[in-house]
Amino acid sequence: MSKENFADVNGQHIFYSVHGAGKPLILLHGGINPDSFGSNLAELAKGRQVIAVHLQAHGRTPDTDRPLRCETMGDDVAALIGHLKLGKADVMGYSLGSFVALQTAIRHPDAVDRLVLMAARMRQDDAYPEVVAAFNQLEANAAMLGGSVKASPLGQAYPDVDWTNLFRKVGDLTKRPFDWSADVAKLQARTLLVFADADYLRPEHMVEFWKALGGGQRDAGIDGSLRPANQFAIVPNTTHYTLAVEPMLPEIVERFLGTA
Q1: CB 3.0-4.6 Å disulfide test: which of 94, 123, 183, 186 passes with 244?
Q2: What distance in Å separates the CA atoms of residue 161 and residue 155, rounded to the nearest whole number?
Q3: Per-residue pLDDT for the chain (260 aa), expressed as one digit of tens each?
C-alpha cells in the first residue's frame, strides 16, 4: 500500500509516493517517464521504504517558470529529504534521475548516505555521437514527440502534463555542455554505478567514471581487503531503455545498500 503526497519545497510543488517500510531510499525516474522503474519499484520496497519522487514538470509535479537544471532539481531533492526529516537518505536515480541524484550528492553531501547511479554521465561527450545528436534535436521535435506521447498510455496516465513543453525543456537541458568529473572525484557518498552492456554511453566512459570514484586502481587482494568502497555493475543483455525494469536490478541494488 503506497501513500501519496505533495511537498512545497524550494519553490516547487513536488509529488512523491511512499512504498514499504525501513531505511528510506529516494527513487528518481528517468526523463519524460515518471514510471521508469515499473514493477521494480515494488521489488525495491520489499526491504526498505522507497520514496518515489516526480521531478519538476514530470508526472504529477507541475512545471514552473524555472528551467530544468540538474543542479536545481538536486536542490529540490535535498529540500524534500529535509522536509521529510530523514536526516541522510540513500538516493537512487536512473538516466536523468541519475544526473539529479549525482547533483544532490555533490551539492548536499549531508543529505545523502549511499548513492546508486544508473546510466549516469559526467560530461556531454560521454554518450555515442548519434545520441548526443538526438538530444540536440529534442527542442526542434518537441511538438511531434509531445503529441505522440500525449496519445500514448503514458500520456493518458498523466493527462495534465504539457508534453510538448516537457520535451522542449528536457531538450534545452540536454543540449547544454557540462563536465562534472572534478566533482565526481570528490564525492563523499559511497556509490554504486550501474550501466547496461548495450547502453547509450560509451564503455570507455563507464570505466572513466569508475576510475574517478577510485575504482580500477589495483587488485583487491585474495581476501578482498583492498577493494574500493564504491561498486561498479554492468548488467548483461540490457539496453539503456530497459535497464530500469531489468529483473535483476533490485538484487544488485540491495546487495550494495545492505553491505556494511
Answers
A1: 94
A2: 8
A3: 689 999 999 999 999 999 999 999 999 999 999 999 999 999 999 989 999 999 999 999 999 999 999 999 999 999 999 999 999 999 999 999 999 999 999 999 999 999 999 999 999 899 999 999 999 999 999 999 999 999 999 999 999 999 999 999 999 999 999 999 999 999 999 999 999 999 999 999 999 999 999 999 999 999 999 999 999 999 999 999 999 999 999 999 999 999 76
Q: Which amino acid is at 191?
A: T
87 backbone φψ class: left, alpha, beta (φ>0; ψ -120 to 50):
left
Q: Compute CA distances 29 → 59, 169, 220, whole Å.
A: 10, 16, 33
Of 252, 126, 255, the residue nearest 184 (C-alpha): 126
What domains lie within the chain, and their CATH numbers?
3-124+178-257 (3.40.50.1820)
- Total number of residues shown for the chain: 260
What is the CA angle 104-107-109, rounded to 5?
80
Whole-angstrom distance, CA of residue 109 vs CA of residue 190: 11
Q: Are 57 and 33 in contact (CB under 8 A)?
A: no
| CA distance linking residue 199 with residue 21, whole number of Å | 32
Q: Which three cell numbers stand for residue 182?
A: 572534478
Extract the C-alpha cell encoding 238. 540490457
Q: What residues have CB less than 8 Å from 127, skipping those under 6 apart? A: 121, 135, 200, 201, 202, 205
